[in-house]
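Why does residue order matter? Because the sequence determines the fold. Keep that principle in mind as you read this record.
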Amino acid sequence: MKYTILPNDLTGIADSAHEAIKMRYGLGDASIEMAIEKSVPIRPTFHWKEPTEIIMCEVAQRPFPVVIKELFADISASGLPIRIIVAYPRDAPMSAKSFQDDVKLAKKFGIGLLAVDDDGRGKIEYQGVSISLHFPEIKYDRFPKAFRPLIKDAYENYMDQGNPKAGLQELGQIVEDCILKIGIDAKKKNQLVTNSFKPEKFIACNRLLDLMIKEEIIDIGILGTAKTFMKARNGVSHKPKSRKAAIERDLLMKENFQIGLRLLAEIPNECKKHGLKFK
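Structure:
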């Protein structure tokens, strides 16, 4: 492969990274050192334009190069579903601490990591997430202690494991379990009087929410948001067929993760007002 911008000492790293990404995602040859779109202020080492996602790779001497750090906000502002992967030599010329700091920062921003060994073998260490799905670090102290490890697991799935769909589903399960616990306690305390809900029998979460809204067990605005959230989180499981659909799916997925977090912060306070257990 021919490069005009990339330093000569990184061309071998680039060739290995190119093959590793092609193999991992089933791609053809990439566009080399070309602009992605007018709205994206970078000409990466190479990139692929897939129907539902753009995959770009920047080859550098370190896992989180300055160019990505400086242009991340602008790339994100494009709104395009771009997955950024940085390829670098496994024996990067930097201290162990600086290397680990780079890896940590890259994962924080959802940047994929691809290390290339001395023998030219490239391995994707972290696949990252589409930049349109990037979610900032969560402040866990706003949630009850019982929720914090569960929310942390969901976030780690979303960002650290590069699987936003699984992270959202995990967060949704926390909300669903919370709603069921409230319903059971409300029934036990005779605040939920309907005969349509028997705690020992299965009931769909949306059906239980309907009953709780009808009897105003807690704030109906919160319950209504929970019902919309439960429906929407299932809607993002469908694979998009176009880039436009992917953008819409990513926005919905990220928005719903935020809504799920808001529910888990608001529901406990609302339950306390009504003397109900949520966990």
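The chain has a mean pLDDT of 92.
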